[in-house]
Amino acid sequence: MNLFSTAGVRVEGYSTYYSPGLGEVADVILVEPLSEELFNRVYRELVKKGYMAVQLKSEKPVFRIIPFSRKRSRWKIPLLLATVVTVFATGLGLSASFYTVTADVVAWSIAYTIIFIVALAVHEFGHILASRRSGVLIEGPFFIPAPPIQLGFIGTFGAVINMKTIPPDKKSLSQIGISGPLFGFLAGLVIAPFGILLSQPLTVQQAQSMVEAGLASPLAGVPLVFQVLEYFMVPQGYTILVHPLAFISYIVFLVTFLNLIPIGQLDGGYVLRSYLSPSLYDLVGWASIALLMTLGIFYGIYLWIGIIALLFKLLFGRYQHPGSANQYSESHNFIYLALYLVLLALTAPIP
C-alpha cells in the first residue's frame, strides 16, 4: 500500500483471498485507473518482490496483486541435451545424403547441430531481450526434442520461454511477440546464402530425374525469402540439391511463418492481441485456420500448417488470451504490426 500512498493514488477498498495454486491474492479497489507510466513503475517494483500486478477493467478499477513462484525448472539442461541428440541425428541423415566421405558427414552433422541450436536460441534471445526491457520475468529457453528426420520429423519442436508475469502494456506485448520471429528471421537470413552457395546446382531435368528415381524429394512449399535468394544466387534454368545448411534456413523461415499465425500462445498471437479486442482476436484466429485449410485444398503444405494451427487452437487457444497486465493500456507501436505483416509475407511458403 505504501506504493500507492507515495504515488498519491486514491484507494477505495482493499481485500485479500486465497487462490489454489497461486496463494494469497490482494485486490485494491481504485478511485481511478493508474496511468500507464505509474502502472509500469509499480509493476516493476512488485516483480522484484515476487508479485505480478494486473489492472482490471470494471466499474471501479481493480489493481490485483498475485504472487508467483521464482522456483527454477530442472528440465532446461536435460531437454537441451536431448534436443542436441535428436538434431544431430537429423544432421547425420541430411549430411549422409549430401556427402560420401564419412569424415565430411560427421563434420557437417556437428556443424548442423551447432548452427541449428544457435538459430533456435537466437529466436528465443529476441523474446528474452524484449521481456527484460519490459520488466517481464521469464525463464528459459527450453529446447524441445522431437523425432529425427529418419523417423519423419526434423529433430526438434523448437524452443520456448516461460513467462512468469504477463507483459505490462500493449506495446510490450507486441514487442515481445515480434522480437522472437524477427531475430529468428535474421538468423535464417544470415545462414541461407551460405547454405545456397554450398548446395549443388542441378538443371531442372537433372532434378526431375533424381526425384523420379527416388534419390531426392522436392521441398513442399519454399518460403518467399528463400526463393528470392535462389533467384539471385542460382543461375537461370537451374535449381539446387539443398545442402544441410540451406535446410536449416528453410526450416527457420517455415517455423517463423507458423509462429506468426495469430493463435493462442504463438508469437503472432501476442502481436495481434495487442491491437485487437479478445472477441475480434479469437475471430481472426479461426479465420486464419479456415484460410489455411482452404489453401490446403490446392497446396498440401498449407493443409499441414492448417492442421498444426487447429491443434494449437484446440489445445492452447481454448482460453481467452489475457492480453496485457494493464487492461486500461492504450500504448501502441504500429512498427511492430508492420514488421509482423512483412515477416508473414516473406516467410509464407510458395508452392
UniProtKB/TrEMBL annotation:
Please report the record's description of how this protein sits within the membrane: Multi-pass membrane protein
Where does the Peptidase M50 domain start and stop, copy by copy?
A: 112-277
State a single Gene Ontology molecular function.
peptidase activity
Q: InterPro entries annotated for this entry?
A: EGY1-like, Peptidase_M50
Alphabetically, which GO biological process terms does the record hold? proteolysis
Instruction: Give its localization.
Output: Membrane
Its transmembrane ranges are 79-99, 105-123, 176-198, 241-263, 283-312, 333-350
Q: What is its main location?
A: membrane
Report the GO terms under cellular component: membrane
Q: Which UniProt keywords apply?
A: Hydrolase, Membrane, Protease, Transit peptide, Transmembrane, Transmembrane helix
- PANTHER family, from UniProt? ZINC METALLOPROTEASE EGY1, ZINC METALLOPROTEASE EGY1, CHLOROPLASTIC-RELATED
Protein's name according to its UniProt entry = Peptidase M50
Originating organism: Thermogladius calderae (strain DSM 22663 / VKM B-2946 / 1633)
- Tell me the lineage of the source organism: Archaea, Thermoproteota, Thermoprotei, Desulfurococcales, Desulfurococcaceae
